[in-house]
Amino acid sequence: MTKDLPSIPAEPRSAKHWIIGDPLPSEKLEGQLLPKHLALPIFASDPLSSVAYAPQELLMILMIGGLAFLSFAPWVALAVVVLLVTVVASYRQLIKAYPSGGGDYEVASRNLGEKSGLVVASALLVDYVMTVVVSVASGVDNIISAIPELNPFRVELAVVFVIILAAVNLRGVSESSKAFAIPTYLFISSVALMIVVGLARTLLGDAPVAESAGYAVQAEQLTQAAVILLLLRSFASGCSALTGVEAISNGVPAFRAPKIKNAQRTLVLMGGIAIALFAGLTTLALITQVHYAESACNLIGFVDCETKPQRSLMAQVAAATFGNNTILFFIIQAATALVLLLAANTAFNGFPLLGSVLAKDGYAPKSLSTRGDRLIYSNGVLLLALAAIVILAVFQANLTVLIQLYIIGVFVSFTLGQTGMVVHWLRALKQPKPDRGAIWRGLTINALGAVMTAVVLLVVTITKFTHGAWLVFLMMPVLFLLMLGVNRYYRDVAREIEVDPTTMFGSQGDHAIVLVGNMQKPVLKALDYAIAARHESLEAVHVSIDDEQTRQLKKDWVRMNIQVPLRVISSPYRDISHPLIQYVKSRREEHGSEVTTIYMPQYIVGHWWEGLLHNHKARRVRQKLMLVHGVTIALVPWLLDSSELIYGRRSRPVPGQDRRGEPVRPVRPVQRKPIAPASGTTTRNRPPRNKR
Amino acid sequence: MTKDLPSIPAEPRSAKHWIIGDPLPSEKLEGQLLPKHLALPIFASDPLSSVAYAPQELLMILMIGGLAFLSFAPWVALAVVVLLVTVVASYRQLIKAYPSGGGDYEVASRNLGEKSGLVVASALLVDYVMTVVVSVASGVDNIISAIPELNPFRVELAVVFVIILAAVNLRGVSESSKAFAIPTYLFISSVALMIVVGLARTLLGDAPVAESAGYAVQAEQLTQAAVILLLLRSFASGCSALTGVEAISNGVPAFRAPKIKNAQRTLVLMGGIAIALFAGLTTLALITQVHYAESACNLIGFVDCETKPQRSLMAQVAAATFGNNTILFFIIQAATALVLLLAANTAFNGFPLLGSVLAKDGYAPKSLSTRGDRLIYSNGVLLLALAAIVILAVFQANLTVLIQLYIIGVFVSFTLGQTGMVVHWLRALKQPKPDRGAIWRGLTINALGAVMTAVVLLVVTITKFTHGAWLVFLMMPVLFLLMLGVNRYYRDVAREIEVDPTTMFGSQGDHAIVLVGNMQKPVLKALDYAIAARHESLEAVHVSIDDEQTRQLKKDWVRMNIQVPLRVISSPYRDISHPLIQYVKSRREEHGSEVTTIYMPQYIVGHWWEGLLHNHKARRVRQKLMLVHGVTIALVPWLLDSSELIYGRRSRPVPGQDRRGEPVRPVRPVQRKPIAPASGTTTRNRPPRNKR
């Protein structure tokens, strides 16, 4: 009955494999490393996709003051670009200084302390939820801009997309597949094409004109302070273009060698593309005179403002440049929507990575520290999706409000990360033989970045607190306390199970019980193994819940001439656990503190749904038995035929695995408590028999 | 380190205990048996609560033909009462003939065949979903009738209530608590009071008048066939008063002795009360001239028919009898809403019972056959709640449409159950010495019931198919195929693990491995137990994923002078499973087919959330190890301090447990395949050492 490991079946190469990727051999260890051309789509979809909404929000806030304020737009956009450049430069340094993938969290923990690190972690977790929310809301916005009849179903569409994303990630899909790369490159090229064509037309004298160019806006009378505040708010909204830049700092281990250089180059390339698209799109929006207001009814001349939606800035520019409802128009809308969905997907892939970093430090369940446990991971996906759905429902998928919430989380981690880097450079100055030039350069960049991001954070918090920002300031402390709680719990448990000089064991006696139900092969195997282990005493125990079944068992026992004595315990209530527990306890009272090993079969199955049909009663019995002193449960596996599926099964991708890569250098040592000095006495009091 | 079982702490008797019940000792076996006064609320809430909507639906359908048709109402109501009496009488017989609690499913399976039984089971499962849906929708209807401002939130309210019910049942609450009994008795008494007062006022000449008495209805011109169809539809809608009568037949084992008589008495009492309330309410509705139309806009004279809701029949009668917005009015509305929620709750308690019956026959996961596995049960609660929410959302909590769907499921099981009883009596005729009188009496009752319920089923199906009944005819086959699939699966597995003469085992060699991570107490315990078991050879294995950790372990090993040899296996990828598996396999290649027992600590914890923080990595390693030939896993429990909570912990009620009771007579034998005759040779080839 030998089951040798069959060779991995070779599947013919098909279109499916070209798109989704080769099946991973089931013994594959850490994820494959990423070449730059696949790394770019994975890490760039978030920052690039924010180009879809950042210019829109920037212009929209300016227009609150009236059409004249649009003249400030170039300056505000320039400020955003400057900040983008600063942030990219900052992360370029962070990658070099901390290439192990800890990102902002690691920088803050190491330089500002445990609590600051946790604040960053909380902010990042909130950030992930908001990434899903904003990206899906914007994607739906673009879809509705292409098909306005869908407008009444805005929220429902958004919820459906979140559900689809969750389902896909529960199944597991590899980010490095071409299915992810194509939309990103399509988006980049089509938007770039649009910008080029638009500018070309302008130069040739046939400047495109947006459909909303004709609408005016009620200008507000603003005090000087209000004007400055408006400019700052517009700047803050434009800064949503920065979201997602930090993702690469978490994924450095995933790059091919030389990791640091490749990561830096990808970061710079990504930043460059984002800047180009952002600047180009904003310019084109100003040229085509897109007038996008906070609410459609603010536009003078907009009919049906209650029901008809404003088209997104991207849609308006595309319609103006390429013509309304042309092929290229729909391509742009589709690419935009797709890349936004991909950006939402990055949240599902990013948080396991964050989770593993937190787990290594003891702030998250330990099972996340390696490949990630599918159970905990699935719970995480569901939580993330649920939070996103609730927020979308509560805020009715209103992009403007949601972006404000988004910015807060992102800029908290930006600010703390930059500040941490400043402290890092200050410490570097104290090292022997510091490279003063490089240090001061780095210090300046990071300090500038820290100040600018702190200003943005302050502005958004003040202006949007009552509009929903309080939600973020509620979620973050909750997560903070949760992580702190997990850490303190693990510390308490470690202290509890720490070995001390008084630890004494000394079981005597060795009794084995084989739990027998029907006479079936798994039971025979368990008997076989129990016999092979040569316990001091061995018996088979059958709890009788069905007279007919017991009679049959006794007959079979005799017929098969099994030499192990069979003990039948009666149970009137179809309950196996309690009579068994009573029996074990009474034995212990007789025989003293012996070790009782209870052999039970465990079915190994191939399909997930078979898990609902096997092993549950056994597990219930087992959980109760383990509360009894001196009991050990020995699981004897029985592989059902379907378990052959597990061999050579294509390993389901665990999300985030493409970003894990391999460690860049030896993993940081786990902090342990010093072990109390032993008294030197032997705690082992019986040598094992090592003959064979 | 002995942990003796502490005595159950005695809690002072408080109001909480008076309402919710005494804490069940953790060693309590099957649920306590029910006295009649507690059984009535549990089983009666469903049929009694349907009094809240049945008269309303009956009158509403009649009014489609115009106000004149209300003169048919007494006759239609009489027909419903006759059917009620017939059905009660039928179930009274069923209880006597099949007291083991299988109900309609058992009757159909035994008399009409496996497939008919499954059809009944599918219908009952759909019935449970619809019980939740209709009860919640009606409860919300009554709440809105008391507080009309809530009308725009009808669907949301319904969904919230379903979520609350699901949460309560996930936590587990005992049905036999007084918290359940009070609303039912309150409902019965207050509605009875209302009927008495209403009739008294009528006799005294001050007949109450409903608020809708003044509205007329557009009379339709109907052909004679249409008139008959209308009457039949009205009858069918009125038959929704029958739903829930069958629940007692599933709960006979839960009654105190003499079970059959007590169950019959409770059934008759319940039927009597239901008939009285139904007849009384219908009479009062006709006296007060309640005009309830299918839609508010059908009522001539009803202002604001788009937004203002019609008040339920119950509310209108109460308002007319007691006065609008009086204390008694609100009491009736509250009691009605509460008893409807209790009725919805019965679905959550009924399906585990059905599940256990199905599991015993192999149509549902085996773990349901005893107390019910919390995992599978929780999945069931969630599925039930989800299905209910989806249906409520899709049909916008429209009571009329939903009731049609409800009736179909209920009447499928009624019809098949009655038909099964007819076959039962026909078979009884063929028995030696049949009691012809009793048999013919029973046959007549059940045959009449079968015909009447079949007619209702036909009418509803034909008239409502396009209005949503197709949904029921979709859900039932799906469930049917699922159950059939489970049954065939278990049969295949049984055949797979059947012992045959060629079954040979014969492991040789007995090697034990203790998996060691850090030097902590659980590991020491595992070592201790492994040593106590006296395996032929024993070694400790450490997979090195952290150099520092490995160094520390080696130092501790030496310092503590542990006599078991420590083998260190390196692993560059923080992966424990694969190096271990490679090692075990290479040993087997060297030493032949030996049994390798791998000892691993398993944490036992007190809180549910601790389960997310422990044991996951170990379980992943374990699952992979069990695929390797010759491996047995020995789990060595380590009880963390928090596990003390499990001792003496109040046993969380598993829903449905109050209805399980104890078996009435020996359980029906599990059908087994005949075992192939053995060749008589010994398959055990090594006697165990039984010395001590």
Automatic annotation (TrEMBL), chains A, B:
Pfam families (alphabetical): AA_permease_2 (PF13520)
Gene3D superfamilies: Amino acid/polyamine transporter I (1.20.1740.10)
Transmembrane segments: 58-91, 118-140, 152-170, 182-204, 224-245, 266-287, 327-354, 375-397, 403-426, 438-462, 468-486
InterPro entries membership: AA/rel_permease1, APC_K+_Transporter
Residue span of region Disordered: 650-692
GO MF annotation list: transmembrane transporter activity
One GO cellular component term: membrane
Protein location: Membrane
Topology of this chain in the membrane: Multi-pass membrane protein
Keywords annotated in UniProt: Membrane, Transmembrane, Transmembrane helix
Protein name: Amino acid transporter
Organism: Microterricola viridarii
Organism ancestry: Bacteria, Bacillati, Actinomycetota, Actinomycetes, Micrococcales
